[in-house]
DYW domain-containing protein
Amino acid sequence: MSSLSLNTVAVSPHPTKPNTTTTTATTTTTLIQLKQVHAQILRRSSNLNPSSNSLLLQLLVSSCTLSPHHLDYALRVFDQIPTPHTHLSNTFLRELSRKAEPKKALLVYERVRRKEGLGVDRFTFPPLLKAVSKASALAEGMEIHGLAAKLGFDSDPFVETGLVGMYAACGRILEARLVFDKMSHRDVVTWSIMIDGYCQSGLFDYVLQLFEEMKASNVKPDEIVLSKIVSACGHAKNLSYGKAIHEFITENNIVVDPHLQSALVTMYASCGSIDFAQELFNKMSTKNLIVSTAMVCAYSKLGQVENARMIFDQLVEKDLVCWSAMISGYAESDRPQEALKLFNEMQVLGIKPDQVTMLSVISACAHLGALDQAKWIHLYVDKNGFGRALPISNALIDMYAKCGSLERARQVFEKMRRKDVISWTSMISAFAMHGNANDALNFFYQMQDEKIEPNGVTFVGVLYACSHSGLVEEGRRIFSSMINEHNITPKHEHYGCMVDLLGRANLLREALDLVETMPLAPNVVIWGSLMAACQVHGETELGEFAAKQLLELEPDHDGALVILSNIYAKERRWNDVGEVRNLMNYRGISKERGHSRIESNNEVHEFLMADRYHKQADQIYEKLDEVVSELKQVGYAPNTCRVMVDLEEEEKKEMVLCHSEKLALCYGLISNAKGSCIRIVKNLRICEDCHTFMKLVSKVYGREIVVRDRTRFHHCKNGVCSCKDYW
DNA sequence: GTAGGGTTAG
């Protein structure tokens, strides 16, 4: 009993200072008072008869239950009551299930069952089932269902509704529906729970179907069930149904509360009607934080991050969710520097990030590809107690891989106590992007030895590794085992990898066969990868065909037009090149501008082609001249065959020599410590000439050079690249 | 008569 004695009663954490908030003061005092009462009961218990003692303890539990801070204490007192009133256990259960304490509610249930007498009635089940739902404890839920049936409570509408919710929350949507269908009376709450179950399971077509049934059975929908329906329309991209519901809401004068507001705005945005969402948002007389955050997300998802920022900046009071939404907006729109800048601003204001924020920040850092920045974020994560969470570790693996450090990615992986399919897949993709196919395959087999089942994403990583290393046979075998042994239906990305695998290996006929016989309609990516392979292997005719198929699907696709003109340029068909270029000018399409980044002294420096904005531009170009003449002595000659414009040879050479990655490299040679590794991140694919250039510099200057291009890493050392020139 | 519905937005 020592743990309950007065000696251990908590004192104020700051005895010399007055309590800063009144709530802390009252709860502390109340707990002290309760403990004093408890001590009195214990002291006098020998003089009291057992039933009045029990009554006093029950009163004590009731008082503790009033405050969420005292639930643990209440649980301990509850344990001392031999036969608690069912009424008391029910109240106690309700409190525990409403709070984030579902496991404790189940504990109470266990104890009630073990005590004398029955201890349960029909009122016990709704809170109990709610706790089971929160804990997703299916086995316990089924046992409770059995007990309810045995006691004949399973035809009570409240109990039945609880059972529907329990099965839905445990992912057993069919069982939920079975209970639902058997009910003789369903009200709006029952329908709402069933509809929510379908929403959670992603079965949005069923949601709309069920809503029609609900209306047909004359149950009047309220704002809660409507907000679920509206959100389902958004997920199902069913704009016409969404609009109809919106009209229904207006016609029936249903209160549009903030939940419904944000559901409507999000629905319009995800159905492609952002203008409509904005209009609706403008019409709202009071713009609360949640609806504004929904708008920030809506614009971010469309990549219209400037518009998101405008709404963000108009908000006077912003909470963590809103900051996180804006940060992730930048991270996912490939604007990592803004994301990290915002993260700093947020911290200056004293807003503490949570796990969701950190995941966006880590992802931003992965996009940026800056290793020093990555190390800093990793330290921050560990220092602030995020490091043990599985999703965070998984994100760190990806971050280090994308920042060029396979070793550090692997260190994070090795240190993890628990690894899930995402951890393994992240490592496999890491090996794949660094051209290390053997380790990718080893990990793929090892994860299965450890009974982790690969998923569709894992196979993308493995096939990608095969394709980037020319492992044609292995790739074919794995592709068929994915279908036949792992029962995964291949999606576009898997066919994309296979087309890539065959195309790179110059098996273009077979690649085309696959495209023509696959059960899915080929998309832009598939034609694109066939087209790129044709460009590499000089298959003009097929390349032109693939490019034209692609342009049928997406007439303004800049990549297709660029590659088409490259194919023509390689054949010196300048008239055709001119035609493509005119088309691009006419339609206002421009090739994405190449840029390269390099980190130096904790700063990220960015270069465009032939750009002179850098404050050390003179030195950089001087270095470039020096490097070029050094390399010429070992046989380097600028390779201009990829320059798509009809220029004099000398002008073409000038263009190639000013590519942004060469400028970044020269800056690295000037500014980074002698002998250190030079890491460059390029947004497009590296060109053949720059690739040769990097290899030669690694030999002549004795420096390790790591270049991340749009699709993979090139580690150049001693004149050799890790990609073995197979990219 | 003590009971059932919104992880609202990241």
Residues 596-721 of chain A form one domain.
